[in-house]
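Subject: sequence -> structure tokens, single chain

Hey, anyone have a minute? Need the predicted structure for the following. Not urgent.
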Amino acid sequence: MKYLISVVCALSFCAAAFAAAPSQASIERLLSVTEVEKLLGTMYQQMEGMMKAGMDQALRGKTLPPEAQKLAETLRAKLMANMKQELGWDAMKDLYIQVYAESFTQEEIDGLIAFYESPAGRAFVAKMPIVMQKSMTMMQSRMGPIMQNMQRSLQEAIQEVQAVKAAPEQADAPKPKA
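Reply:
Had a minute. Here:
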């Protein structure tokens, strides 16, 4: 009996170890039904909005000459263009395929495709950009106070360092004669 259980366990482990690797075509189909390319495009638009909002917040209350405003806008546009080129779908597709191939079996990919082609899966895919947008908006509202706290902590640390630097200078200064 123990021998039979051992054989069954060994066969189970072997079957799991030799599960079929997913085909590139099935991974591409999964990436298509999950609209990963479209989701990446939405993500870049949101990141661009966040970058613009961050630059606006950093410059709030400051009047920049038109040339400086134009340079800031040009820099933002260049950064986004570079990010889209380096992290765009054309550059990332093969990486997605590799990660999925290393992470999932063919059976799992087939199950995911079945889910994403179901009504619930299609609803999930259709609503994910809205979920991401709302999440990013909520994160932005939380980041403002976090950034303010970080700036305040940085200012306090700078003041502490300046106080420590000033202390030895005051100790070395000649004492007034009485």
